[in-house]
Specification:
The chain is an all-alpha fold. Helix content is about 60%, strand content about 0%.
Length: about 300
């Protein structure tokens, strides 16, 4: 089986769970993981999101936050939305979100980053681009996740998600000390995934993969043209190498990833993951405009 054919014959309208699972655990696990990491950076640049993440202190243990987020989001991908483990994971996500004063607009924007950023990443850096059916499946997967999270007025097409993301960022990207703090903590965590002497290079590489509006929102210094070019060529070289590899036969799992450092094998439980806040530290909307917490089921 060639990797380009893994999803051939599947219908992205009805088989979107299987298509997105194949994309995430077989065809593009590293790329999608990296893209979603940079998607989260974008959410920090929206002050209402970044400030809440900082003031709620959920990032004080950045490694645990990273692990909990990845493990909770992985459950519906690998098991399917109907599986009890996926339901438990989404229920825990909803419980955490329901404790805070989060607008539906911010929820929709974060959802849009999960749809748009991976496709743009693959367009620029991937060993191949998403097919049309894979893009549609990604849209339908996150629309289904939104349904379980009771997010309203969700776009129906990739183009609509892209328009939502670009317009929301143009209107809302701005510097906020809380957002910058969370971005700094996340960037520091990313450097720990590689040998410590490489930390300065990882920071420069990360800045080089950020666009100018994102850098400006964090008041990060813009990398020079040489750093950007070297980073891009490095990513293209990796893409060429991966393209030549045989198809992955063993599915990727974050549970066994060396980047997951919080839990030993079998220790993770969705019911106790994440944070258990007592009220929202940041009020920025009327309660009536916030999405209610749907219980996955």
């Amino acid at each position: 089986m060639f990797r380009r054919d893994r999803n051939r014959g599947l219908d992205p309208r009805t088989d979107f769970e299987l298509i997105y699972r194949n994309m995430s655990v077989y065809d593009f696990p590293w790329d999608i993981t990296q893209a979603l990491s940079f998607a989260l950076f974008r959410t920090y640049a929206v002050p209402s999101v970044g400030r809440l993440l900082s003031d709620s202190r959920g990032f004080d243990d950045t490694q645990k936050r990273y692990d909990d987020t990845a493990l909770l989001l992985e459950a519906p991908i690998t098991e399917g939305f109907a599986d009890p483990a996926a339901k438990a994971a989404i229920r825990r996500i909803n419980q955490m979100h329901h404790a805070y004063d989060i607008s539906n607009d911010d929820m929709r924007y974060v959802l849009a980053t999960f749809v748009v950023v991976p496709k743009r990443w693959m367009d620029d850096y991937g060993w191949r681009q998403f097919t049309y059916d894979e893009t549609v499946a990604s849209v339908n997967y996150y629309r289904e996740l939104a349904r379980h999270m009771n997010i309203k007025d969700v776009p129906e097409t990739y183009e609509a998600f892209e328009e939502l993301l670009d317009s929301y960022e143009a209107e809302h990207f701005a510097f906020d000390e809380g957002g910058r703090r969370v971005a700094d903590l996340t960037l520091e965590l990313l450097t720990t995934f590689y040998p410590r002497p490489l930390a300065p290079l990882i920071r420069i590489f990360s800045y080089s993969l950020m666009d100018d509006p994102l850098l400006a929102a964090f008041h990060y210094r813009k990398p020079n043209a040489l750093a950007r070019k070297a980073s891009y060529l490095g990513m293209r070289a990796r893409a060429a190498f991966v393209r030549a590899l045989p198809p992955r036969r063993k599915p990727y799992s974050f549970h066994t990833s060396p980047r997951m450092k919080t839990y030993r094998s079998g220790e993770f439980a969705a019911e106790t993951a994440g944070t258990f806040p007592r009220g929202c530290p940041v009020k920025h909307l009327d309660a009536a405009s916030a999405p209610s917490a749907a219980v996955a089921g």
